[in-house]
Specification:
181 residues; mainly alpha; Serine Threonine Protein Phosphatase 5, Tetratricopeptide repeat; 10 helices; 78% helix; 0% strand; globular
């Protein structure tokens, strides 16, 4: 997809493709390469022929991606700083999807810090149509001793029935967790 966008000099599409590549790298355990691609995605969008609001949104959502990279790298201080900066921007724009993503980040930080009740509360305010959120919420419930809730969320994540690229990241993990319960 990136090659086609590049041949057509479609910088906006190239930026989106770079973001997808970065997300795949992040989920396959290479946060450093992911961060490089996330940054290239922003740089590419800055050069695209799109409205300034689109460029601003890309830069704003880079904070979300960079916070996830920091969490994957076990750098909780950087993750919290980027999450706070993202939260400030989200409050200004109040775009529901971004509000969900901010709650997702807050839940991820709480889960990382083993504050399971806070993680549960944050994930409940995140995108319930994202199988990654369902899986992370299941983990928080499981660690909090809420086995029934964890099982229900794992079943939803493992059997997710919507078009969502994130399903590829969680299906096998959710199935494995279910089999181990």
């Amino acid at each position: 997809m990136y090659k086609i966008a590049e041949e057509n000099a479609d910088a906006a599409q190239m930026s989106g493709d770079l973001n997808l590549i970065a997300d795949i790298l992040l989920h396959s355990g290479d946060p450093e390469k992911a961060l490089t691609k996330f940054q290239r995605s922003v740089e590419t969008m800055d050069g695209a022929n799109v409205p300034d609001e689109v460029k601003e949104g890309t830069r704003r959502n880079h904070l979300y991606d960079a916070a996830r990279v920091a969490l994957m790298s076990d750098d909780i201080t950087t993750a919290r700083t980027r999450t706070d900066a993202y939260g400030e921007q989200v409050l200004i724009h109040n775009i529901p999807f971004e509000v969900w993503q901010h709650h997702e980040l807050m839940g991820m930080i709480a889960l990382h810090e083993e504050d399971f009740e806070t993680a549960i509360a944050e994930f409940a305010q995140a995108n319930q149509q994202d199988p990654r959120v369902l899986l992370m919420s299941a983990k928080a419930h499981q660690h909090a001793g809420h086995d029934e809730e964890a099982r229900a969320l794992l079943e939803q994540a493992a059997n997710f029935n919507q078009l969502n690229f994130n399903f590829a990241y969680v299906r096998t993990k959710a199935q494995k967790m279910l089999s181990e319960m």
